[in-house]
Design a protein that fits this description.
By secondary structure, the chain is mostly helical. 60% of the residues lie in helices and 0% in strands. Keywords: Membrane, Transmembrane, Transmembrane helix.
Length: 128
């Protein structure tokens, strides 16, 4: 025995791109907003800790970076952003202090080399 098929009426209308189809669950286009997670600056903080740790600024920046990463994992974007900003400011401060220290040392060495070399020689002879 074969199943009996009944005729189905199809409604054919011209397609209007500005009018949603009746089967659409959303009558209007929905904008999807992608929110970027806050930055934690861990790599920059490790660099500051390794190379520019004057006054322990790099260490403090690393602590705030890790706090920011923990908040981000827990889903607290506001806390992650706050700790990330503190880490960023501490990294900037460590960078400024490190560059200032480096430039001042180069200026001291370049300004009067003979006394500096005599002082280094005296220190090296003391330990030999």
């Amino acid at each position: 025995m074969q199943p009996v098929s009944s005729p189905v009426a199809l409604r054919v209308a011209p397609h209007d791109p500005y009018r949603p189809t009746p089967a659409s669950p959303y009558p209007y286009p929905v904008a999807c907003v992608v929110v970027q997670p806050p930055q934690d600056f861990v790599i920059w903080s490790m660099f500051s800790l390794t190379f520019m740790n004057h006054f322990c600024l790099g260490f403090a920046a690393l602590i705030f970076s890790i706090k920011s990463r923990d908040c981000k994992v827990m889903g607290d974007n506001e806390g992650a952003a706050m700790h990330g900003r503190k880490a960023k400011y501490l990294n900037i401060l460590a960078l400024i202090v490190g560059i200032t220290f480096f430039v001042s040392m180069v200026a001291v060495i370049a300004s009067d080399p003979p006394p500096f070399h005599r002082a280094v020689k005296a220190i090296l002879q003391r330990y030999q």
